[in-house]
Structures are given as C-alpha cells and as structure tokens.
Amino acid sequence: MLVFTIRRLFQAIPILIVASIASFALATISGDPVQNKFLLRNPPPSAQVIATTRHNMRLDRPWLTQYWDWLSGLITRGDWGPSIDGIVIGSAVGHALIVTLRLIFSAILLALVLSLASGIVSAYRQYSKVDYSFTFVGFVFLAMPTFWIAALLKQGAIQFNNAWQSSFCPGDPTCRPIQTVGEQSIVPPSGFFGVAEDWFTHLLLPTLSLALITYAAWSRFVRASLLEVLNSDYVRLARAKGLTPRRVMFKHALRTSLIPMTTVTSLTIAGLFGGAIITERVFQWRGMGTLIINAINDKDRYVIMGWLVVVGFIVIVGNIIADILYAVLDPRIRYE
Amino acid sequence: MSETTSRPSAADAAAASTGMGPVSVMPPSEKTEREFTVKERSQLSMVMTRFLRHRLAISSLAFLVLLILVVYIAPHVFKLSYTEITNNASLSPRLRFPMGTDELGHNYLALVLRGAHQSLNVSFIVAIMSSAFGAPYGAIAAFYGGKIDAIMMRIVDVILVLPFLVVTGALSEHYSGTWYTVALLLGVTGWVINARVTRGVVLSVREQEFVEAARALGASDVRIIFRHLLPNVTGTLIVQATLDIAAAILAEAGLSFLGLGIHSPDTSLGVLAQQSQNAIQTRPWLFYFPCAMILVICLSINFIGDGLRDALDPRQTRQRR
Fold first, then answer.
1. Which residues contact B233 (CB under 8 A, 6 or more apart)?
2. Could you report the per-residue pLDDT of A38-52, keeping only the tens digit for each?
3. How would you class A253 by CB atoms within 10 Å of its CB: exposed for 0-12, middle for 13-18, buried for 19 or more?
C-alpha cells in the first residue's frame, strides 16, 4: 500500500509539470497584461514606463525562460511571480483557497448526504412514485444553470429575511437569519460561537446551490450502484438468512455500493471549482472565483498560473486519495 | 445482435425440416414456400421500437423539434427582430410582448429566441467536435493499449485537471467572444469525456471474436478501428452526444454569465441572464425567461438521452410498459 501511494505520488509529478506548462501556454495566449493595462490610458504612458513594467512582468524574456524562471522561483524561493495588479500571489491564492475550500467541502458533504438519502429510498422502492419524483427532481437540477439555482435561493432568502424582520425585529436592518452577500460579515463578530454562526449563515446558501447541482448527478449514481448490489447473490443470501431488510440494506448492500462513490466524488472536484466560480459571483464571495475572474480580465499572467497550478494540485491529490481509499475499501482491488 | 442473426437460420431450418430438400440448392431469388416466415428485424428497428415505447423521451423529442423549428424559423416568419428598439421600454409580459420588453425596448421574445438560437448553435458544434475527435482518440488509445494508451490518457488527465470554465474563459476573453469561438473552445476542452467513454467501451469490444476474425481476414488497424470498433460504440456515443449538448448549453450560459463567453451586441441565453441579473427584483421576467429556456432545452435533451440509453442498451433496464 505504502509503495503504491509513493509510486502514485511520483506519477503525479509529471502530470502536474505538464499541466503547469499547459497553463503557462494558456496564460500566455490569453493576452498581454501590460498592453491590456495601458491600452485605454490617455495620454498614453511613456515608452520608459511601458518598458519598465514589461521588465517587471518578465515579458522581455523568451517564453521558455519565463516558464523556467517561474518554476525555479516557485520551487526555490516560494515566489509565485509578479502581478500586474500588485497582488502578492501566494498569500492571495492562499486566502481565497481557504474561503473556497470551505464552500466546496460543505457542498460535497451536503451533496453526499442528500444523494445517499434519496438514492437509498429510490433503490429500495424502485419504480415507485417516490423513486420517479426523486429522478425527476434530479433531472431538473441537472438541467438548471448554476446561476439560476443560486439566484432563486438568494431571492427566497431575501423574502424570508424580510418576513422575519417585519415579524420578529421590526426596524432593525442587521436582523437577518440568512446572509446573502459575502463569505463573512465585514466586521466579524467576536468569540468562537459568534464566528462559527457568522460563517454558517454565510455558507448556507452558496453551499446549498452548489450541493443541489452535484446532488443531481450523484443521486442517480448512488441509485444505480445500489440497485446493482441489491440484485447480487450475496444480498440474496443475506435476505435468505432471514436478516431484517434494514440490516441487509445498511450493513450489507450500502457499504459495497458506496465504494464507486469515492471515484465519482474525486472526479467532481475540478467541476466544483468551476461551479464555485459562478456561485461566488452570485453571492459576492471573495474566493478563488473572484480572484480568477479578475485575473482573466486583467490578463494577469502569473495569477492565472498560480490559480491553475493550485487547483490542479488539489484535483490530483484528490484523485490519489480516492484511488487509495478505493483499495482500502474494496479488498478485491490490490495495486501491486 | 445474436437474435437477428439466429432468426433467418431458424427459418431455414424450419424450411429444411418440412422436406423441401437441401436449402442451398434453391435459387435465392425464387419465392420460397415455407410454412411460416419470420421477418428479420434489424437492430435499428428494434432500437426504434424500444425508443418509441419511452413516452417521456418521445414527447421530449417532439417538443425539442418544435422548439428548434420555432427558434430557427419563427423570427423570420413573424418579423421578430432582436435588434429593433421599440418605444415600449420595460414592459411586463403581455399579449403584444409575450416575454415583455427590456429597458431599451427590445422585444424580449425575439431576444430569447435569438439567445436560444446561439446556444443551440454552440451546443451542436461542441457535440459534433467532441464526438468527431474524442471517439477516434479513445478508440485508438484502447485498441493499441500499452504505452500508446498510457500516453494518450495522460494527456486527457492533464486536460481534466484544469477546470474547463477557466481555460475556455481565459481564451475566449482574448479572442473576443463570438459564438463560434466559444463553441470551438468548448469543443477543444470537451472532447476528453468522449475519449474516456469511447475508450471504456472499446476496451471490452476489442476482445470479442469478430475483431479477431477481421484481423484474420487481413483487415488493417485503421479498418478495424473505423469499420468494426467504432460502429459498435455508436449507441454509447449518441447518448454521450446528448449529454454533450446539454453540458455545452450550460457551459456557454455559465461562461457568458461570468462575462467570459459571448459578448454583446450578439446575445445568448447566458448573456441575457447576465445582463438582467440585477433586475431580478424589479423586472423578474428579464431573468427568468432565458433561464427557463435553458432549463427546458436541457431537460428535454436529457430525457431524450435517457430514452436512447434505455433503447440502445436493454440490459440496463427492466421492462418498461
């Protein structure tokens, strides 16, 4: 197992390097940050200023040298490269990552709980009305654009807040049970419970909107996987032994059917970062989404690079963890 | 498949057993006298029968065809112009303007139809590109296996590691988004899923005897891949293409919503949603009609895909009546 883990980690390194070269090429093709910055300046800045900025942005070096400088700077000094907006990329990505990972983790958790619950019910009562309605709900969420779910939840929460305010605390604009804007209050409350409550009330809606979309795909998967297991011989044996349906479902069938979910979950991570960009836009979070959208708009080459490399790293690590979990959970699978 | 091949031979056997002599002697063009005849059913007709039994999929298909006709033809017939500015600004939906008007006085129905037009254009191109490139790619990787497979799939892994929303967004922002650049970019990142799916199917198909037989008959690798392996993946590919279409519509909408996809003056459903996101409270119809359009298109495509999956792979489902 240990050997496998180590080998897997080593295999990931070339993928990460190739991915970073690809992202560097991408960031290069996406445009010239200096030209973009000075394009609309009137009067246009002097050639001296442009030359200095180009030098600071390392644009006056050959392409391969730029990449090599970036890579060696990152590895030896932890330097993520210059930013046209004057962002310190390492700490900016770090802060944004904490915010977004909070969202992604809670969304994965909620989506798992929801899809498991509905998947179990659907598989247990296959072709019943409950099953069909869960399937239909899944189809609807699968077809809904992320921003619409987010906007609907936001509107619902605003209405709810207004109703709450008028009935419980009239005249107090800070009295809102659900927060609809930002990842935390501008003036964060003090104390552990204050901070926790603040985080939770801000997290609720973005998590829900991201989780519902993920749920749509996962619930169908749980249902299919559970149905397959329920029709297998060992479950029939368990039933024949006279075990209660509950015990058969939870002790025998469910555990086995959950094994493929590790892979499905890990494959969703990259997509969740994409979905989080849209969710963050609707709820005005200052996370990875805002960071990358601003970077793309300003063609801020090294910020795009840093973002892609960090996300790529997380996705790869997620895949490795899933592979290892897969082998731990399923004794039939041995990677040697 | 085994059913279709076994049926004529069973009929021959029946004919032979009635004492009409050896079957091979009879001229094939003559009308043979048999006690009963069995009509051969092709795989296609069987798939069609099963698909037609899937009521939800059939009604979705009818609805989608109708919608496509409306989207592509209605603006010309009814002279709906999405650029024409009337002096009726910000009207709520009413008989003359079924979807209201926006703040400049555009007929919103015309805008939504134009948006759906562009979104459908994008999604069709993405689906065609993804299948046309992804399927042969996956088939080649699976057919040769070994090192070639490993290298080709590592490339796919690299593309899957980078969120496509950012990749396409960064590029389409630069190549200022017209609908075909957005479509091309989504196609360039979208084929990897098709490649993976095709590879999975071909890996199992290539072990079957008919591939061996084809090789024994001297078929080249190219012929085996394109004439023997890929036709067997057609069913999976068609289902995957429906998923591609739905995914591309959602991707385009997401990109345009972030301001990284199609730019005004051209429009798409995502652009309309993005332009009206601040008007949800005051003029909700501006936001909800494009969103509902996306929902309706994707929902019906997903239902069609579901019906096709059931029709093409009867092992997956129990009897549906």
1. B135, B139, B198, B201, B202, B205
2. 877 778 888 888 888
3. buried
> What pTM value is reported for the model?
0.85
**How far apart (Å, rounded) are the C-alpha atoms in residues B136 and B188?**
15
Q: How many CB atoms lie within 10 A of CB A245?
A: 11
Contact yes or no for B157 and A144 at CB 8 A: no
Contact B198, B237 (CB under 8 A): yes
Residue with tokens 């200095």: A52
The two structure tokens encoding residue B242:
């429906």
* Residue type, position A328, single letter: V
Q: For residues A158 and B40, what is the distance between their CA atoms, to the nearest angstrom?
A: 63
- Among A145, A273, A316, the residue with its CB nearest the CB of B253 is A145
How does pLDDT run across B101-142, given as a tens digit for each residue?
777 778 888 889 999 999 999 999 999 999 999 999 999 999
- CA-to-CA distance for A7 and A4, rounded, in angstroms? 5
Chain B from 284 to 313: CB within 8 A of any A CB: 287, 291, 294-295, 297-299, 302-303, 306
Q: Which amino acid is at A115?
A: S
* Interface contact B173-A31, CB threshold 8 A: yes
Give A-chain residues touching B298 at CB under 8 angstroms: 142-144
ipTM of the modeled complex = 0.88
| Span A300-316, pLDDT tens digits | 889 999 999 999 999 99
